[in-house]
Amino acid sequence: MAETTVNGSERVALITGVTGQDGSYLCELLLKKGYKVHGIVRRTSNVQRLRLEHLRTMPEVYGKSFFLHYGDLSDATTLRRIIHLARPDEIYHLAGQSHVGLSFEIPESTCEEIAMATLRLLEICRDQPHPIHFYHASTSEIFGFVKESPQTEETPFRPSSPYGCAKAFATDMGRVYRAGYNLFVCNGILYNHESPRRGENFVTRKISRQVARIKLGMADKLTLGNVHGRRDWGHAQDYVEAMWLMLQHPTPDDYIVATGKSHSVMDFVEAAFAVVGLPWEKHLEFDRSIERPIEPARLLGDAGKIERVIGWKPKRTFEMLATEMVEADLADLADLRS
Length: 338
Ligand code: NAP
Ligand code: GDD
What we know:
two-stranded antiparallel sheet, 7-stranded parallel beta sheet
C-alpha cells in the first residue's frame, strides 16, 4: 500500500472532471485514503452536482479535505491559478466531452476540449516548481480501426472517430512530455467502464434505466441503434483504483485497463432484461438515426501489463455490473415515485 503522506504532510490531488462518473468515484477513493482533494467544476445553470452532492453537504469534508474550484478546460489562466493555489502532488485529468457518437456532431469543440486542453495542462505542469504525477484519461477508442485483437500498449493508434483522434493526440503528447521533459505522465488506456453513475446517454445506462422504467410500468419500449457492436465492459470503481495505482508506481508508463472479455450491446440488453424477468423481444425496437457513421472494430483489451507490473485486476464481472445498474435504477425510480 502506498503512503498518503509525503515528508509527513498530507498528499494533495487535483481532479479535472470531478463531477463525472469517474471523477466522483475517484474523489471518494482519494478522500478515503486521506488525501486533500481539489476538483475543478465548470459553471452550469444548475448548481446541484448529483454525483458529488453527498460530499458537498458533509460539513466535516467539504471545505476541509474536499474543495471545488470553478474553471473551464479552455481557460488556461484559471487552470494555472488553481494548480498554483492547490499545489497538487497528483493531477487526474479526466475532464472532456466523452461521448463518441456526439463527437461526430461537435468535432471541433471535442478536439479543443480533449486535445488542446491536455496539452495546456501538460504545459502548466512543466512550469511548476514541484514535481507532479499526472494521469491522463486515455481510451480504447485510440485503436479504432484495430490492427490486432486483443490490443496491448504496443498496438498502433488508428482512431475511428473525432473523439478517438483527439485522445490519440493527447496520449502522444503525454508520451512526448514524459520523454522530453521528464514529467511523470501516465496514460491510462481505459476500455468502457460503467456504473449506476454512468451518464444516461451511454448505452448501458440508457438500457438499465429504460428496463427499470419498463418493469415499473412507466415505459414500454427501449429504442437502440446498432446492438451488434462489441465492447470490453468493466466497472468504474475498479478502474479508478487502477488510475490511483499507476500514479503510485515509482516510474511513469502507459497501461491498458480492461477485463479482456468481449460482449455485444445485445448481451447487455439480455442481461438487463433478465434482472427484471421480462422478455426483451416484446420491448426492444431500433432507430437507424442513432447509428454512428463509423464504429470501431473489435475493441478488446489485454491488461496483462498492469496486472504484472502493478498488480491490478478487475474485481467485478459483466453480469454483476448489469445487475447492479438495473437494481440501482429500480431503487432510484421507486424513490422518485414515492
Ligand atoms: P463523464 O461522466 O462524461 O465526465 C466528464 C467530466 O468532464 C464531467 O465532470 C464534465 O463536467 C467535465 N467536463 C467536460 N467538458 C469540460 C470543460 N470544458 N471544462 C471543464 N470540465 C469539463 O466521463 P467519465 O465516464 O467519467 O470519463 C472520464 C474521462 O475518461 C473522460 O475524459 C473520458 O473521455 C475518459 N474515458 C472514459 C471511459 C468510460 O468508459 N467511462 C473510457 C475511456 C476513457 P460536467 O459535469 O459539467 O459536464
Ligand atoms: N450511446 C448509445 N446510445 N450507444 C448506442 C445506442 C444508443 O442508443 N444504441 C446502440 N449503441 C451502441 C454504440 O453505437 C456503440 O457501438 C455502443 O453502443 C457503445 O456506445 P457508448 O455506450 O456510447 O460507448 P462508446 O464505446 O462509444 O464510448 C465509451 O467508451 C469509450 C472507451 O472505449 C465512452 O465512455 C468513451 O468516453 C470511452 O472513451
